[in-house]
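Much of what follows relies on a compact textual record of a protein's fold. The record below shows the convention in full:
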Amino acid sequence: MSASAIGKHTLWNILGQVLPILVAIIAIPLLVQRLGMDRYGFLTLVWVLVGYVGIFDFGVGRAMTRVVAERLGANDIEGAERNARAALSFLFGMGLVLGLGMLLLSKQILGALSVPAEMHQEALHALQLLSASVPLVMLTSGYRGYLEAHRKFAVLNLVRAVMGIFTYAAPLIATAFSPSLVSIVASVLITRLIANFAHRWACQKCDAAALHFELPSIARLKPMLTLGGWMTVSNIISPLMGSLDRLLIAGLVSVGMIGMYATAFDTISKVLIVAYSLTGALFPVFAGLQQADEVQENYRYAIKAMLLLVWPILFIASLFAKPIFNIWMGAEFATHAAPAMQILAIGLFFNCMAQVPAMLIHSRGDPKWMAALHLVEMPVYLVLIYVCTSEWGVLGTAAAWATRTTLDLVALHWIVLRRISPDSVPFRHMISIGVAAAVLVASLFIHLPTLHLFVLGSVSILIFVFCMWNFILSSAEREFIHNILLRKILRKFACGK
């Protein structure tokens, strides 16, 4: 794939995630105002459940993308369609089983949550209704994989952007008629139904045969199940560790506190758009590298690029967390959400930096190391987050999550240095990552007027850029950046004339 194609696909990916953010900024305060913290917290839990259920596909969704793409590459259109139909039928069947399980266990699921007594019956009916969305979510993930195999990134991210907007807009519209959880979940169900039809329509525009359901044969499913084996471990455990924080808050603290924590997490975690876009663009580059010295050189570039891109965003977000939430959500909300977001900013920094070694490990075609790491991490993280949440509430939850991402970065770098590319990260780069993290930790204890924060933030960013330019970037990298900036300035000057 060409560099321009990589850039174009990266741009579509960013747009598909950025547009819903703009809607969320407006919708979230209105949802909190209309629903109250307890119902809004339940809504965020619904979003978690809908997002998580799609991973129980035994890796078939992701494996289907590769198998269908291989068939298309061999010009075997009929073979691609047969494999796609087998995978989609399997996913839909699994969705029916999981949906039925959620329906039958809805009382047990609700019993594990700290839902106020007056909301109990309402929440139970909402969970039962939510179970109908499970087959739609599973089937939509299959359609998405089919579109990725056909490289229909533009239409895929257009649909994703529209559905992302309706994720926030649909519940907001529903509150105009009723603030009950049943009406809110009904809006979520309608959104998933529309998303399913939109993805299917996009698939049928690929000049392919109708993707009707058929009884999947073992022969067609076996390659996808085999390929998805190790990926299934990571696909289940990694999102579970990502959503475990909110589930434990619902069980150990209160449903209302989920809203504050989830809003803080969802706000600061948007920096991952930058991280995923960078690693997504670099993935095919690393996959094509053969020489060890090329891998080392590009790995160092990726580490420095990630540091340059994400640290300033996270530092400013941490520094201005309380003023931002005061203006956006009010002083009471800011009291709980701002400190949590500052702690999460530290974890997000390590999480973003960990995307680089994770990308290298996947690009070398060996996902078993990621799966093994997640298997080791899961029980440790479960104990850690349970203890921290029980003792310190949402701040303990945030601290446990940040601790896990820190250990995750250390472990992934160790795998890279021991198994893939020794001496990939010079000592000064490790020091720079440590210093950058220490400054984020220091921002937790800074309490100054907003004007003083602007001054401190500006000076800190200037110092960061100075240190990176003089001590971290190589002369070739400085020259490359300088030439890019110079060309842009000259181009603007020429256009102005």
In short: DSSP finds 18 helices and no strands in the chain.
